[in-house]
Amino acid sequence: MNYNRILQLIEEYDTITVFRHQRPDCDASGSQFGLKQWIIDNYPEKKVYALGTETSFQGRFPALDSVEDEVIRSSLAVVVDTNTPDRVDDQRFSMAAHVLKIDHHPDLYPYADDNEVNDKAAAVCEILAEFMKSAEDKSVSKETAEYLYQGLLTDTLCFMTSNTTPSSLMAAAYLARTGINIPEINRYLFDVSLEEYAFANFIRSGVKIIDNKLAYFILSLEDQEKWGINGSEARNFIGELGHVKEFEIWAMFTAKDNDGMTVYDGSLRSKTAPVNTVAQFYGGGGHRCAAGVKNLTDEKLRQILPDLLSLLNK
After folding, report:
1. What is the average pLDDT value for the chain, to the nearest integer?
2. Domain match, 288 and 261 both
3. Burial category of 53 from C-beta neighbours within 10 Å (exposed 0-12, middle 13-18, buried 19 and up)
């Protein structure tokens, strides 16, 4: 990672627009708002905007900004946590004067003018914490640290994923020095309502298991309507399938209507298996142990399960 280059670009532009991927998780929103707040705190003369149309269902983040095309055209566009250009949640990023990508996914699509990628990092929030630490004459506010800590905590599943490293923990310790309330952050990220608790029980009661290694759940359109939940919200419950010793891979698929045809979006998780390789084969992507797929037909849904299982039999 060339932190000096990131700092150089930030200092060069008077207007900065920050983008992230569709269906944002806490790492996407946390890195977006964390970077925005850090720039505002240290460069109050600059105009900084967090752009997109969708909001995160997890964590606490401010409202997104709204700007005209002309603002973007004169800006440095920073795209965080998004490895392919088609997943950016506001395609106007491409009209910016300069595009900087900061990411931790494998750099298979270097679509920006500058691509700063560390695929060994557990989260983009980890990368940004290290970047901010490297800028020794700049400050990190408690607000910035809270945004980043949310993304780091969730992308590592509370520091339980195999890509959690000493760097991840040092980044968390650096952010904690600002005085963020760690127990409170954990509560609002992971405590659930009674309704959510009931839905989680419904998921667990319907889990299918293959060879005691692979667990999966399919949520129909009818059940989404019954529970008053959409597919994206439901897939946030993917963790309900984890934490079982025998499960090496777990997956959750949610149905949706696509011009009268039922297709499925899916979230894939594993302890160590490279589920992102299977996701890529089906047009998706993600991290080694956390990936996603979209628009699977019934046939492809039937095919992906043995493909996931084959990762464990190799």
Report:
1. 95
2. yes
3. exposed
3-state SS, residue 41: helix
> Do residue 176 and residue 212 come from a single domain?
no
Per-residue model confidence (pLDDT) at position 146:
98
Domain boundary among 189, 224, 257: 189
| Residue that terminates a domain, selected from 167, 189, 211 | 189
34 and 79 together in one domain = yes
What is the DSSP-derived secondary structure letter of residue 92?
Answer: G
Task: Yes or no: say if 115 and 101 are a contact pair by the CB < 8 Å rule.
Answer: yes
Q: Structural domain of residue 136, as residue ranges?
A: 3-189
Question: In this predicted structure, what is the pLDDT of residue 59?
Answer: 87
List the one residue out of 265, 219, 276, 273 whose CA is nearest residue 249.
273
Distance (Å, rounded) from C-alpha 81 to C-alpha 20? 6
Angular region, 304: left φ>0, alpha ψ -120 to 50, beta rest: alpha
**169 and 200 together in one domain:** no
* Average pLDDT per consecutive 10 residues, the chain (314 residues; last block may be shorter): 96 98 93 98 98 86 96 98 94 97 91 96 97 96 98 91 92 98 94 94 96 96 96 91 93 95 96 93 88 95 96 84
**CATH number, residue 82:** 3.90.1640.10
Strand order in the sheet with 285-286: 208-210, 214-219, 249-258, 261-270, 290-296, 285-286
Residues 151 and 232 in one domain: no
DSSP 8-state code for residue 129: H
Written as six digits, the tokens of 234 are 């439901």
> What's residue 23's pLDDT?
85
